[in-house]
Amino acid sequence: MDAVIFDLDGVLIDSEQVWDDVRQSFAAAHGGVWTATATRDMQGMSTPEWGAYLVSAVGVQLSPAEASAGVIAEMEKAYAAHLPVIPGAVDAVRAAAARFPVAIASSAPAVLIKVFLDVTGLPVPVAVSSEECAAGKPSPDVYLLAASRLGVSPASCYAVEDSTNGLRAALAAGMTVLAVPNPHFPPAADVLTQVRVLSSIADLPAALT
Q1: What's the superkingdom here (predicted)?
Q2: Cβ atoms < 10 Å from Cβ of 81
Q3: pLDDT tens for each residue of 114-124
């Protein structure tokens, strides 16, 4: 194996619930009506995709660009108050980086990935947002782009993921996938049968052997 590529939300930051709360509040404030499937539908979407979803499916009375910009601004405020780094995540990334090139391949916007890296000071030379890609997860695009920027074959990469769409994206990229299931939004059972499941991110260094 030549590299380790990490998802961000739900793997390194306990942020899935923060995203959900911010989007629901923002939608309610702008004429939207949350649906039973909205949370899972948007997991893994790129910024343009979920901005459009808030307008078309949730009914937010703004343009997609206005909706996404408003939500991201609220997320920046939330992170400024408290960045919910998952216990063991920083040590796990440092341990991986001591042995492999590492990257982040995330559906989060670049500005929020930068906040995480600035706060933690982690040695991550490549950080890719699906904003840069044609499609978000479960498309493999963001993982393929991260591997390309590391200069390695996708087949020689570990991918560390937590959600159904993220796991599907990493599998579609042809990577060896390690799952740290999100306790708030557990991934689909059929996807978990295709990956190695870890009980926590703290178990990652041992799994890389």
Answers
A1: Bacteria
A2: 7
A3: 999 999 999 89
Which tokens in the block code for residue 1?
């194996």
Q: What values do phi and psi take at 24, rounded to 5? A: -65, -45
Residue 27: the pLDDT is 96
Cα–Cα distance measured from residue 33 to residue 170, given in angstroms and rounded to the nearest whole number: 32
Do the beta carbons of residue 185 and residue 165 sit within 8 Å?
no
User: What average pLDDT score do residues 164-178 get?
Assistant: 97
- What's 9's DSSP letter? B
Nearest to 148 by CA among 115, 176, 173: 173
Give the separation between CA 51 and CA 199, rounded to whole angstroms: 32
9-29 confidence digits (pLDDT tens) = 999 999 888 999 999 999 999
CA atoms within 13 A on the CB side of 173: 33
The single residue listed with the structure tokens 């493999």 is 140
Instruction: Cite the DSSP H helix spans in 98-163.
Output: 110-120, 141-150
Tokens of 137: 């997860």
> Across the chain, what does the average pLDDT equal?
95
**Stretch (H or E) spanning 46:** none
* Coil, helix or strand at residue 158: strand
Q: Comparing C-alpha atoms, which of 105, 113, 96 is closest to residue 2?
A: 96
